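Example record for the data management plan.
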Amino acid sequence: ILLCKGLFLCENCGFLQTEEPYWLEEVYKNPINISDTGYLQRNLYLSQIITIILYLFFGKNKKYIDYAGGYGVFVRLMRDIGFDFYWHDKYTKNIFARGFVYNNEMQPIEAITTFESFEHFVNPLEEIENMLKISKNIIFTTELLPQPIPPPEEWWYYGLDHGQHISFYSKKTLVFLAKHFCLNYYYLGKLHILTKKNIIKYIKYILKLKKFGLYRLICKNMKSKTWDDFLKISKKHENII
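Corresponding structural encoding:
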């Protein structure tokens, strides 16, 4: 149904989307929009939370992808911690994760992370299906629609200043998506997980242990890839020369 000018709501699943986004070519000339002042802070915070989740529920020695990985900051942070992470992005220049770009030969991939990307999807079902071909575990962030749904001028997440946000989800939407793809859905505040795994329901309480040193304890049991990555990249460079 037409909720207001330019916004359409699916009552069955609580999904809200803009009209056909004819403006995307223009707004993606600069993929990371200038108003995203929380870019680095978000990556630092998420690297700690995701470290706990991956270590406890997915495995410290598996391969992972950061989908729509932006400049590659998150991939570099996770490799510095010790996880075997790779970068994938259709639009943004890879600055910090050069040399660690995902390709189809890297299977199996245990899980995909993708942060602040779901709201950019023109066709969410198609995008999620593409991700599930790589891994059946997706960990992501997106702001849930407030209830009642606010008009455009009353919610910052519509992103009217940059025009890149075109799809918006309620918890009902994400439950619907989980059922559609035969997955489990776990809601952890701003963090969401779609997975084949049956993760314990008190995971949200485990994450609270971060403030008591769980993240630092896990890092002590990981081997950072920073130096090994340097040696790998340096060797490649020498071979090219």
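Summary line stored alongside the record: The two ends are 60 Å apart (CA to CA).
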